[in-house]
Amino acid sequence: MRKELLYEISRSVIAAVGVQNVLWAIVESITKGTKAKGCALLVLSQDGEKLYHRVSYGISPEYIGKGVIEVDDMIRCVLAGESVLVEDMANDPRIQYPEAAKHEGFGSVLSVPMRSYTGVKGVMRVYAGSQRTFSKDEIDFLDSIAELSGLVLEKEEERDRMALEANRAREEVSRMSDERERFLYFIRMVAHDLKAPLAAVESYLKIILKGSTGPTTEKQEVWLNRSVKRIDGMLELISDIVDLSKLEAGLDSPELTPVSWTEVLNSSVEVARGLTEPRGIELENDIEQNLPEIFGSEVRLCQLINNLVSNSARYTSTGGKIAIRAHQVEDNVEVLVEDEGRGIRPEIIPEIFNDFFKGDPESLEGTGLGLSICKRIVEMHNGKIWAESPAPGKDIGTLVTMVIPKGVVCSHIWGKPE
Amino acid sequence: MPKILVMDDDPDIIDALDTLLGGEGYEVITAHDGEEGLVKIREENPDMIILDMLMPRLDGYGVYKALHDPQWSEWKDIPIVILTSVSEDVSHRRYELETGVRMEVAAYIEKPIDPDVILEGVRSILEA
User: Fold this and answer.
1) Which of A33, A215, B60, B72 has the fewest CB atoms within 10 Å, i.e. is most exposed?
2) B116 to chain A: which residues are within 8 Å by CB?
3) What is the rounded CA–CA span in Å between residue A34 and residue A108?
């Protein structure tokens, strides 16, 4: 009970005035309150073999600097929990510096243990100018104050330890984030260097197919076409990996500007038409003009819509329809991309936004990164994206909905997705 | 027959374009970096330039800037096709946004080279 109470008192006093001020107040009040000549708090070294001066009142710098106090039998008794009085410091063999004590004008000294939760922190010493004794009440009282001092010292150690640990944690976090950035940069560089040779090889293949180097057999033509397709797939994967690592590293500030939703959607519709027309897919658009602006990345928002439309186009057959709709709903812009494709099996819907997820793992088409890139872009703009299949009110197709707050400040630094 | 200067640091891209355009009867001259390219422009006075962006010594943007300097005014109107692998969909706008580079050029064409796209692009620019 006493320890808990003292601990609570020490906690609130330290918080109010700081450790050093509390210790000063203790040694000063004890000296004055007991009409002593001085009071010192001596702290036990880590190896437990010496006592060091921590704070004192009424004691000269010469006496403080007299030398290190070794832990001897008497001090061991104090550290074991006993208060020990030496009545005649100048002539008692238990005193390590009798001459200095005499010179300082000390008669008696009372040594009291500074107990704490984790053991004894050191010794409180009360020095009297004459040879005197202390009553049991006085010793009990000094014992409590010594214990309070011990708890204050412990609190300080704990605070230092926590500061050190916090510092270490900060350093670790910063080291890890540097490493992560270096790694993402490395991925971007590797991906970039992989693209150039693939592009050269595919260029050759296409020119051979064009017939510029002479005729090819039917079989050669089939295989060359298949090679082109495989390289296209690889290039798509590389480009998705580059995008992903760019998004993971966070957007560059120059990329972030006020962006007109209407312009983003109108230009996305143009790109989409290039995908749907050759495949005989109808493209319906219902885009509210004068949609509000957003502060974000125009490149990424265009990429978001284009990714969704190209996904839809991949699964919608000739004669089918893809619709892009966009409206302001309260403080959000709601963008919907709906197709008449074969839809998504309900059991895999929760997984489709995960990295490298493919509905059909054996398919050679698609990288499994398109939708996860979309999700990152939407979340960077503080929005939400989800898919429903079959599209509401229909028995086929998929509806992807994005809701992005208007005028929002894009989250510049991007952490890991949930 | 029109003369086309191909500037690219990738010898395979140069070879491929040389074969493709040469096969269509164009006269093809080549340069492996921007500095060599500027020398060829002065010497050969090409009818159009196919320009890679990432090149050693002087990159594609450097070449573009040089040609818009008054001392190059004689050659400033040669049509330029940018041949790049910066982005997947060859959108002029995306290229500008991603690189921060804005250039008035005749066309942007994406690597890998699609023969039909290149030939159609070259034809329409030279006929214009």
Assistant:
1) A215
2) 210
3) 13
Q: How far is A327 from chain B (nearest CA, A)?
A: 24
Instruction: Say whether B19 and A199 touch across the interface (CB within 8 A).
Output: no
**Looking at the predicted structure, is the pLDDT value of residue B36 above 70?**
yes
| Both tokens assigned to B3 | 């003369």
A12-21, A255-264, A384-393, A397-406 — which is least confidently predicted?
A12-21
* β-bridge pairing B80-84 and B27-31: unpaired
**DSSP track, A17-45:** H-HHHHHHHHHHHHHHHTT-SEEEEEEEP
Average pLDDT over residues B63-87: 84
Q: What's the whole-number mean pLDDT along residues B35-61?
A: 91
Do B16 and A200 make contact, defined as CB atoms within 8 angstroms?
yes
Q: Which of A334, A322, A304 is nearest to A243 (CA)?
A: A304
- Tell me what pLDDT residue B89 has: 43
Is residue B86 very low, low, confident or very high in pLDDT (cuts 50, 70, 90)? low
Chain A residue set in contact with B, beta carbons under 8 Å? 195-204, 206-207, 209-210, 212-213, 231, 235-236, 239, 254-255, 267, 271, 298-299, 302-303, 306
Distance from CA of A174 to the nearest CA of B (A): 28
CATH numbers and ranges of domains, chain B: 3-127 (3.40.50.2300)
Q: Hey, are the CB atoms on A267 and B93 less than 8 Å from each other? A: yes
From its phi and psi, is residue A395 left (phi > 0), alpha (psi between -120 and 50) or beta? alpha
- A127-131 long-range CB contacts below 8 Å, 24 or more apart? A127/A36, A127/A37, A127/A38, A127/A39, A127/A40, A127/A58, A127/A59, A127/A89, A128/A36, A128/A37, A129/A36, A129/A37, A129/A105, A131/A87, A131/A88, A131/A107
Q: How far apart are CA A2 and CA A8, in angstroms?
A: 10
Please tell me the distance in Å from B22's CA to the nearest CA on chain A.
9
Provide, as residue numbers in chain A, all residues whose Cβ is less than 8 Å from the Cβ of B113: 199, 202-203, 206-207
* DSSP state letters, A348-368: GGGGTTSTT--SSTT-SS--S
Q: Tell me whether residues B20 and A271 touch, CB distance under 8 A.
A: no
Which residue from B102, B116, B6 is spatially nearest to B51, judged by alpha carbons? B6
Q: Using a CB-CB distance cutoff of 8 angstroms, which residues of chain B are in contact with residue A302? A: 91, 93-94
Residue B33 in tokens:
């970096």
The domains found in chain A, sorted by start residue, are: 2-165 (3.30.450.40), 251-405 (3.30.565.10)
In this structure, are residues B30 and B14 in contact, taking their beta carbons and an 8 Å threshold? yes
CA distance A371 to chain B (A): 16
Residue whose C-alpha is closest to residue A35's, from A132, A179, A160, A166: A132
- How confident is residue B101, by pLDDT bands cut at 50, 70 and 90? low
- With contact defined as beta carbons under 8 Å apart, do A340 and A395 qualify? no
Q: Which residue of B has its CA nearest to A255?
A: B97
